[in-house]
Amino acid sequence: MNEEGTLISPEGIVNLNSFMIMTTCFLFAALSAKMRATSSMVLGTVFVTLALAMFGMTNSAWVGVGAMAIFSFGELMASPKYSEYLGNIAPADKRAMWIGFSQFPIAIGWMAEGYLGPRLYSAFADKDTLARAALIEHGISPSQVTESALPIGGAFQRLVEVTHQTPDALTAHLYATHHIGLVWYIFAVVGVVSGFMIWQYGRWILRLAARR
Fold this sequence. Notes:
The protein has a domain of 120 residues. It is mainly α. It has 9 helices and no strands.
């Protein structure tokens, strides 16, 4: 992060997640051990959803750091309990197979995210895409803002030259005039739906246990 607290590198955010997991995993393991598996997963999903919404609310680096910390807490609350829960309900002689197949829906989620994520980001939050659209609005011919005419990353610099604004001021303008956070809010909605379904599943399991 820079001295002003306005910029942090992507690798800094990712490394923060790893650091939080390495240094606090035992604390959250002790906390989640006192909770039902579904309750821990719901709470973890709530944390993750909150973090995703925070990423979309502002471009403040400090808020991004806080959001990643909360995301890490959610991951620590939900992910281990998911594997533990499957191990507990699986037949003793098929536990490894159950845990192995449990990765299948995760793989589906990763593939869906890998397809939708970049497209949503490009449509709502990619600075290069927004800069190309702004160049056209400033009278530049569409043929001059294609990727063959302007390499990726060059559109923003060209926009700086056209508007005579500083990069920071232009970034703030693009952020203020577009729905940058929408892509994060879409992901947060997925988190809300997921948390609700886990909560409903936990209630269903309790009702089944009460009937016995």
